[in-house]
Amino acid sequence: MNKTKNVIDPEMYFAERYNNINYPKESKNKRGLRNAQIGAIHSISSYFTVQSSNAAIIVMPTGSGKTSVLMMAPYVLEAKKVLVVTPSKMVRGQITEDYSQLRTLIKANVFNKEILKPNVFELEHLFSENDIDEIKAAQVIIATPACALSLTKDDDLNILIDLVLIDEAHHVPAKTWQKILINMKHAKQILFTATPFRLDNKEIKGDLIYNYPLSLAYKDGIFGEIQYIPIEEFFEKDKLIAKKAEEVFFLDREKGLDHYLMIRTDTKKHAKELEKLYSEITTLKLKRIDSSMSNLTVKKCIEDLRERSLDGIICVDMLGEGFDFPNLKIAAIHAPHKSLASTLQFIGRFARTNAENIGVAKFIAMNDRELLIENQALYTSDSIWQDMIIDMSESKINEEESIKEYIGDYQNYAGNSVEIINDLSLHGIRLNCHAKIYKVVGFNKTSEFPDACNIEFGPYINEKDNTVVAIGKNNTSPKWFIGESVKDVENQLFIVHYQKETNLLFIYSQIKSEILYEGIASAFCTFYEKIPKHEMNRVLGNLREFEIFNSGMQNRFNDSGESYRISAGIDVSQSIDPSTGKLYSAGHVFCKALTEESAITIGYSSGSKMWSSTYSTIRDYIKWCDYNGLKISNSKITVKTNTNYDYLPIPSRLESFPSNIFMCDFSWKTYVNPPAIYLSETEGIQGIMMDISIKIMKINKDNIKLILSLDGKEEEIICDVNSKYSSVESKILVSEGRRQIGLSEYLNNNPLVFRTTDDVMIQGIEFSKGDPEAIVFSKDNIVPIEWIEKYNTDITVEVNDSKYHPHEKSIQSSLQEILEDNRAYKYIIYDHSRGEMADYITVLENNTSYEITFFHVKKMSAANYNSDVNDIYEVAGQSIKSIIWLKTKSILLKKVEERRRSNHCIFLRGEYEDFRKEIRSKDKQITGKIVIVQPSISRDTYMPDKIQEVLAATRYYISNSGKVKSLEIWGSK
C-alpha cells in the first residue's frame, strides 16, 4: 500500500496525467512498448470513444506485457477511480508494488521518473468501514475477487469507481466475477486475459476488441521455442522424471544457458515427497513453495534463484499469473494441468524471452495418451508442442461478433411450436473439428436423436444449412460405486449436418462409438454408408506446400509387432521412400498445408473420419465440413502432396471378401490399449482382449463367419463387406470406460485385420494390395524332426493331460526334451495357456544380442501328412501375432512380468530375476526367431498348393516384420 497521499483532487489524477503519456516503440537500443502493448492500448482508446455499455476484452499472450496495458488504461481513459481485480494474493501484491511506483511504465519510457505516482490501496481483506477513508483517497484499489465483491456491494462507494480492470478474467470464479461486473455496470469494464475461454466453459461476455495471437508472439520473439521431452517408461514415474530433469538442467548449464528448473505438482503432500526424492537421487539445490506462502517468500525465492544459491523450485499448482522470471526454462511436470487455459498459462511462463543467455524452454513429463486437453493428446511421444500449443491457443480465440447472426438462425422445435433459443447460448460452444461422414439418402432434419443420446437441450435446427445441434446428458454410475442410485452427469454435444449438394452427412459426437454414429445416421436418413479411404484422401486435394507432421502407415506384414507405424516430426514424409511403399499402405495423415487463402491443418483416417487441430464456432465448423465435403465428392481431384508421402499406396474400397483369407487378428489399437473382457454369465474380469482366440469358419463374398472363444465360451460373429459386425448372442463383453459393451460393438469401433495368401490386407472397408509375386514357397525352412522314431511322440497329442492322455507322450514333452538337450540356451521358458506369448521361449546370448525364439506348438489332426490346411491356419496366425512381444525389450519384459503375475512363464532353465535384470541392463539388442512346431507338415511328402500358400504367406509376413530374422517349421520327414 502506498501510504503517501497526493495533494490533488483524487478524481483528477489520471486526467491531469493524460498529456504525460508517451508511446515509444521498443527497439534493440531503446526500451519502450511492444507491438502487442501499443495495439492493445490504442484499441482501448478507440473502443471507449463510441460506447461503454459492454465490457472490452483484451487478449494478449502470457509474457507480452498485459500488466503494462492494464496500468496505462486509466490514464488514456482519464478515469477517476479504478478497481483492479486480480486472481490471487500474490498477483495482487505484485501489481500493488508496481502500480505504486509505476516502475514498469517508467522503465518502458511511457512516463518519466518525475511523474507523480498514484495513490494505490491494496484491499487485503473483506471491505469494512475502516477502509472508507483509504478508498476515497486512492486512485487505484487492488483486490482479489472476494474482497472486490465485498467492496462493490457498498452502493455509496462503488458509484465512485468508474473503471473496472479484471486481470486474468478466465481464472476468476464465475459467480463472484459476474456479481462484481453486475454491481459495477455503471463503470467502464476491461477484461485482460491470455486465454479468453473460461475454465468452467462459460462465455466471457463482452466485445473482443484486441487479440494478439500466440503465433505472432512467437514470430515477434515474445513467445520462445518450446520442447516436450516425454518419458516413455511407466514404472517409477517420479524417479524417471527427476533424473531426466537433472540431466537436462546440467546439460543446459554446460551449454552456457542461464536456466533454472521448476518441479510442478498439484498437492502439498506430493511436493514434500518430491522434495525428499530429489534430495536423495539428484544433486539439484531446490526449495519448496506453495500458495500459502507470502509474496515476500516468493520474492526471496526468486532472489535465491538469481544468486544461483538455488537451481530451482518445487511448486504446488501456483506461479502462473504474475510470476515473471524468464530464466525459468525447464519444467519437470509430475502432475499436468487438466485444462487448456491453465496449461497455456503455465507454458507461457517458461516461453518468455526477455532475458540473456536463455534458450529453448523444455517440459519433461510422462507419456500419457489418456490425458486429453481439449480433446488433444498433448502428453504423448509424438506430440509437437511448438505447433500444437500455438494451434490449440489460437483455435480457441474466435471472432465473437461474426457468429451472432449465424447463431440467431437456430430455432428450437418443441412439438408443433417454434421457440427462439433463450435458455442456452450456442454462441459459447467451441468444438474441435472432427466429423464422421456418411453417404446418405433421405435426410430428414426434424428427426429425433436416438434414445442413447439422452437429449436434454434441443434439438436446435438451422433451416438454411440443414444443421441440427443438440446436447445430451450422459448419466453413468461412478467407478467407485456399484449400483444405480449414484450417477455422474456429463453433457455431450451432438451436431448433424447434411450437405445437400453432395448427399454427405457429417456427424459430430463427443461419444466416439460406431454404434452411436450409425444410430444417428439411421435416425436422420433412410440409407447410409461409409466413405472409403481413397475418397477420404481427397481432403488433401487443392492444397500445396504440405508439411506432414503426423502420419500412420499400415504394415501389411506385421499384424501386431508394428502393424501400424506412427511417425511425428517437422516433416515425417522425408522418412518414406519407394521401398516403404512396398511394405506399408497409407493409414491416417495429419498435416499442415496452404489453401489459396491461408494455412490449415487437416487429417483423415479410415472409418470415414476427418479432423483438424482447429477449435471452431458452430458456424465455422459447418463451413469446414462443407469445404471438405465438396472435395470428398469430387472424383476429378487428384491428390499430390509433392512429398515422399505420395509413395504410399491408398487402399481401395472392399467390394467382396477374397476366398484365400488365411488369418485374422485384432487391430493395432487393440494391442496398444487392450480392454478387459467379461463373460455374460460370470462375474469379474476374465482377462484381456488378446486372451480371446479367433477362428475363421466360413468365407462368403459378402460376409465372413467367425468364432471368437474364451475358456470354452464361443460367440459367433458375422462381419459384412461394410465392416458391420453382428452377433446373435453377446456372450463375451468388453469394458469401455464405465460400461460393458458387446463384442460386436467393440469390433465395429476396432475392426479386425484380415490377411490373404497373396498379400492383401483388409481392415474395415479398406482393401490394400501388396506384392503377391514376392511370396514364394520353399521347403528349405522345414526342419524334419523324428517325433515318433526318436522321441516316441504321439503327434496327435499337443500337451500332456493326465485325464485324457495318461500314457501318451505329447509334442510339448518331446519339444521340451529337445530344447533342454541344447546347452546353448541360457533361458528356457514354458508359457502354454491362453494369452501366451508362445508355448516355449528360449534365449540365446551372443556377443551383440539376445536371440529370443518363440516355439508355437500344434498337434496333428489330419489322418495323413500335408493333407489338411486346418492344421496350419491356427498356428500360422499365432506365430504372426506373437511378433508384438519382440518389438522392444520393455514390451517383452512387461509381458513376461504380466504372465508371471498370473502364474505363467515358468522358467525351466535360469531364474526370472536374473533374466529381467540382464535383459534390462546389458547393452544388447534383442532379435527374434519364430518356430512353428507342427508334425503334420512333412518335407518329403507331396504338399497341396493351399498349404504351400499359407506357409509361404506366413514366412513372408514374418520375415518382413523387421523384428524377426527368420521362421522355421519343425515338421516331419
Automatic annotation (TrEMBL):
Keywords: ATP-binding, Helicase, Hydrolase, Nucleotide-binding. Residues 47-214 form the Helicase ATP-binding domain. SUPFAM superfamilies: P-loop containing nucleoside triphosphate hydrolases. It holds the Pfam family Helicase_C. InterPro entries: Helicase/UvrB_N, Helicase_ATP-bd, Helicase_C-like, Helicase_Restrict-Modif_Enz, P-loop_NTPase. It comes from the Bacteria. GO terms for cellular component: cytosol. GO terms for molecular function: ATP binding; DNA binding; helicase activity; hydrolase activity. Residues 236-411 form the Helicase C-terminal domain. PANTHER family: ATP-DEPENDENT HELICASE IRC3-RELATED (PTHR47396:SF1), TYPE I RESTRICTION ENZYME ECOKI R PROTEIN (PTHR47396). This is Superfamily II DNA or RNA helicase.
